[in-house]
């Protein structure tokens, strides 16, 4: 998805908000000029997640502050979801359609996003998971998804956040049971990106014990095709089916034309406007039918 005016303004406003309480007005003006210069020089292949990483690095260098460390937050939410995993798996397996239910829970886990939301807390995660009236999956897309799974040979699963990745593991586990001939590869971020899942998280929550997992070779909060590893790109280009979690994967992949099923919550205003959705409404949409 190309960088758009709405997301550009949002990024600029976020930078101003970060420095609003700083004292030196001249220094703040100088910084905001650099922010706008970065925006003005954005490349054709840039997108909101790639610009976000550039801004974080620029903020750290300009203000001589270390990059934010989310390692303790990631461990906290990984453990929260690991503690819930047995009971959630039991609920999923006892449902009328375990795969559909697993996808619903995996989508709810997309709430754990410190890049898109100002406040993320465990109480809200638990409330969303326990909510009876979850937004259903689009029935037509789910039907086509199951039809395509039946004939697919290779599936790639693109993860998003820590904690959420435990719920992704339950989806992968069911896919492997229901489609034993399906070759599944999970792709996580190649390097730390906010609270996104990396190989360290995949190992910590046991995902690497049930399927092949690789990093994408990049630190952008999504799957930025021009800059991921050749291995990751080839896997995506040759996959029959791709499941992509989160807004960042949509922002980096939309318009690529691959057979992607996006699974995410609408957490920011642009997504809510784009899909006529209420805050945190769930989406299950296909790249080729948007």
From TrEMBL:
Pfam families per record:
ARMT1-like_dom (PF01937)
Ranges for domain Damage-control phosphatase ARMT1-like metal-binding: 7-273
Gene3D superfamilies assigned: Uncharacterised protein PF01937, DUF89, domain 2, Uncharacterised protein PF01937, DUF89, domain 3
SUPFAM superfamilies on file: AF1104-like
Q: What is the protein named?
A: ARMT1-like domain-containing protein
**Species of the source:** Blautia intestinihominis
Q: What is the lineage of its organism?
A: Bacteria, Bacillati, Bacillota, Clostridia, Lachnospirales
């Amino acid at each position: 998805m190309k960088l758009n005016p709405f997301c550009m303004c949002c990024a600029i406003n976020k930078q101003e908000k970060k420095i609003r309480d700083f004292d030196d007005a001249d220094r703040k003006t100088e910084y905001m000029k650099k922010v706008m210069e970065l925006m003005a020089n954005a490349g054709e292949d840039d997108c909101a997640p790639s610009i976000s990483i550039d801004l974080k690095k620029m903020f750290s260098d300009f203000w001589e502050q270390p990059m934010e460390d989310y390692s303790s937050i990631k461990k906290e939410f990984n453990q929260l979801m690991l503690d819930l995993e047995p009971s959630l798996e039991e609920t999923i397996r006892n449902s009328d359609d375990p795969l559909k239910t697993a996808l619903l829970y995996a989508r709810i886990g997309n709430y754990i996003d410190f890049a898109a939301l100002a406040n993320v807390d465990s109480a809200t995660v638990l409330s969303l998971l326990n909510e009876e009236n979850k937004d259903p999956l689009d029935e037509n897309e789910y039907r086509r998804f199951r039809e395509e799974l039946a004939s697919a040979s290779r599936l790639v699963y693109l993860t998003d956040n820590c904690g959420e990745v435990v719920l992704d593991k339950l989806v992968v586990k069911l896919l492997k049971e229901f489609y034993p001939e399906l070759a599944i590869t999970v792709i996580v971020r190649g390097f730390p990106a906010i609270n996104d899942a990396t190989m360290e998280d995949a190992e910590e929550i046991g995902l690497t014990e049930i399927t092949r997992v690789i990093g994408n070779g990049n630190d952008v909060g999504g799957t930025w095709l021009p800059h991921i590893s050749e291995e990751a790109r080839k896997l995506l280009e040759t996959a029959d089916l791709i499941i992509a979690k989160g807004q960042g994967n949509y922002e980096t992949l939309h318009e690529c034309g691959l057979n992607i099923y996006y699974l995410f919550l609408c957490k920011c205003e642009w997504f809510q406007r784009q899909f006529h959705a209420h805050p945190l409404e769930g989406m299950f949409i296909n790249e080729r039918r948007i």
